[in-house]
Automatic annotation (TrEMBL):
One of its GO terms (molecular function) is acyltransferase activity, transferring groups other than amino-acyl groups. Residues 13-117 form the N-acetyltransferase domain. InterPro entries: Acyl_CoA_acyltransferase, GNAT_dom. Gene3D superfamilies: 3.40.630.30. It comes from the Bacteria. Keywords: Transferase. Pfam families: Acetyltransf_3 (PF13302). This is Acetyltransferase (GNAT) domain-containing protein.
Length: 157
C-alpha cells in the first residue's frame, strides 16, 4: 500500500496519542533532552510552544499522518538565523523517515525563507547515510541545552 503522507497542525492530534508516542522508550533512546514524563500538562506545553513558533515565524512543527494515522511530529523550527529540521516518529513508523523527510525538504526548497536547513542529531544516531544522500554535510559538534549533537547542513537553494 502506498503511503499518503500529510502534514497537519499538532492541536489536531489527541493529547493521549502524543503521550503514548513520547512515552515509548524506543523514542526516548535518541532524544537526550527528553528527561521528563509526558502527561497532559507536558503535551499542552509542548503544543503551545510549537504553535508559538507558527505565530512568531510563520512555520513550525507539524503532526504527521500516514494514510490518515498519526505517526509522529516534525518540521522546521527557527534557531537564530537557521531553520532546524526535526523528526520524531512512532516506533512503528521509523521506516517512513526518508519519505517524510523528502516531503519536508521539498517544502523547504520551495520556501524562499529557507536557504538551508540544519539537522541536530545525537551521537547515538549511527546510521546517517540517508542524511548524506540528501546532500547534507557535517558542520560540527554543538552543545544544545547541555547535550552534544552532531550538526549537519543542507542547502535548499
Amino acid at each position: 500500500m502506498k503511503q499518503q503522507i500529510k502534514f497537519i497542525r499538532l492541536p489536531q492530534i489527541d493529547a493521549e496519542e502524543i503521550i503514548e508516542h513520547m512515552s515509548d522508550p524506543r523514542v526516548a533512546e535518541h532524544m537526550p533532552l527528553l528527561t521528563f514524563e509526558w502527561d497532559e500538562t507536558a503535551v499542552a506545553k509542548f503544543v503551545a510552544a510549537k504553535e508559538e513558533c507558527w505565530s512568531r515565524d510563520g512555520l513550525g512543527h507539524w503532526a504527521i499522518l500516514s494514510n490518515n494515522d498519526y505517526v509522529g511530529w516534525g518540521g522546521f523550527q527557527r534557531e537564530g538565523d537557521e531553520w532546524d529540521y526535526g523528526l520524531v516518529l512512532k516506533p512503528n513508523a521509523f521506516g517512513l523517515g526518508k519519505l517524510i523527510s523528502k516531503k519536508a525538504i521539498d517544502f523547504a526548497v520551495a520556501d524562499e525563507r529557507i536557504p538551508f536547513v540544519t539537522f541536530l542529531l545525537p551521537p547515538s544516531r549511527k546510521n546517517l547515510s540517508a542524511l548524506t544522500r540528501f546532500g547534507a554535510i557535517f558542520v560540527d559538534e554543538v552543545d544544545y541545552d547541555g547535550s552534544v549533537f552532531l550538526k549537519y547542513r543542507l542547502k535548499t537553494e
